[in-house]
Design a protein that fits this description.
Distance between the termini: 84 Å
Number of helices: 2
Protein name: Lytic polysaccharide monooxygenase
Shape: globular
CATH superfamily of the largest domain: chitin-binding protein cbp21
Order of helices and strands: HEHEEEEEEEEEEEEE
Strand content: 25-35%
GO molecular function: monooxygenase activity
Keywords: Hydrolase, Monooxygenase, Oxidoreductase, Signal
InterPro entries: CBM5/12, CBM_sf_5/12, Cellulose/chitin-bd_N, GlcNAc_Chitin_IntDeg, Ig_E-set
Largest sheet: 6 strands, mixed
Number of domains: 2
Pfam families: CBM_5_12 (PF02839), LPMO_10 (PF03067)
CATH topology of the largest domain: Coagulation Factor XIII, Chain A, domain 1
CATH class of the largest domain: Mainly Beta
């Protein structure tokens, strides 16, 4: 009887040890997204963005984690911006070509990844669209120039919490897109970020209330810059960060663009 008890105790000890090793060997969960130039998930983020109809990505802008191996494998065509994650499908919706877009020119621009949780890294890679890109349809591989405009091999190293990359943007025209990609070294995953850009300085011509919507080109004329020391009433307009905002109610010290969709400031578009 004692020998059976000892055997059971030994088996229990082995099971606990195996479970402990399995837990400690499991890779840590990683999270990150591109904040500047703003990615689609940054424009949707509850903490920084003002876009409507973003779904769950509003609360998890750092979670666009799909299969790695892009472009030969990874997220499928039409689901690239969401990393193939179905619950973030709003990122693949082209919104009629009216996503907010950053105005750019050819030359070097700094891009920033904000890592909520860092992880052992294989590489960061950036691709830009080619002449076949249609901003009114979900992104496909055939619309990307698969010769990267930036590639940095990390060899399994750990990135900084705030990781910046100086990316050389080629001369192009009209609306284009940059795909930023962070590949994890010791899991099967990678993070995807689609960044809408415009070479013609038109910004975003679409959704009312989008932070990139230029609206009336003269809408900001005569509107004062926002001041943290000024009290504003509902309906008061201010200019901040190149965008026009209107207060929904009395406010003071709340920075436009930082209060989210349900905050005090209503984004009226770019100046």
């Amino acid at each position: 009887m004692c020998s059976v008890k000892r055997a059971l105790q030994a088996l229990t000890g082995i099971a606990v040890l195996v479970l402990s090793l399995a837990l400690t060997a499991s890779p840590a969960q990683s999270h990150a997204h591109v904040t500047d130039l703003p990615s689609r998930q940054e424009f949707c983020s509850a903490s920084t963005g003002t876009l409507p109809d973003c779904g769950q990505i509003k609360w998890e802008p750092y979670s666009v984690e799909g299969p790695k191996g892009f472009p030969s494998a990874g997220a499928p065509d039409g689901q690239i911006c969401s990393g193939g994650v179905g619950r973030f499908s709003e990122l693949d919706d082209p919104r009629g070509g009216n996503w907010p877009a950053s105005n750019v020119q050819a030359g070097t621009r700094t891009f920033t990844w904000d890592h909520k949780v860092t992880h052992a890294t294989t590489k960061y890679t950036y691709w830009i669209t080619n002449g076949s890109y249609d901003p009114t349809t979900p992104l496909k591989r055939s619309e990307l120039n698969l010769d990267p405009i930036y590639n940095e091999d990390f060899g399994g190293g750990m990135p900084s919490k705030i990781e910046t990359h100086n990316v050389d943007i080629p001369a192009m025209s009209g609306r284009q897109m940059i795909l930023a990609y962070w590949e994890i070294a010791d899991t099967g995953n990678a993070f995807y970020a689609c960044i809408d850009i415009d070479f013609d300085g038109n910004g975003d011509p679409g959704d009312p209330g989008d932070p990139g919507d230029p609206g009336d080109p003269g809408a900001c004329d005569g509107v004062a810059d926002w001041s943290p020391d000024t009290a504003y009433l509902g309906g008061d307009e201010v200019v901040h960060g190149g965008n026009l905002y209107a207060a929904k109610w009395w406010t003071r010290g709340e920075e436009p663009g930082s209060t989210g969709e349900w905050g005090v400031w209503d984004g009226l578009g770019a100046c």
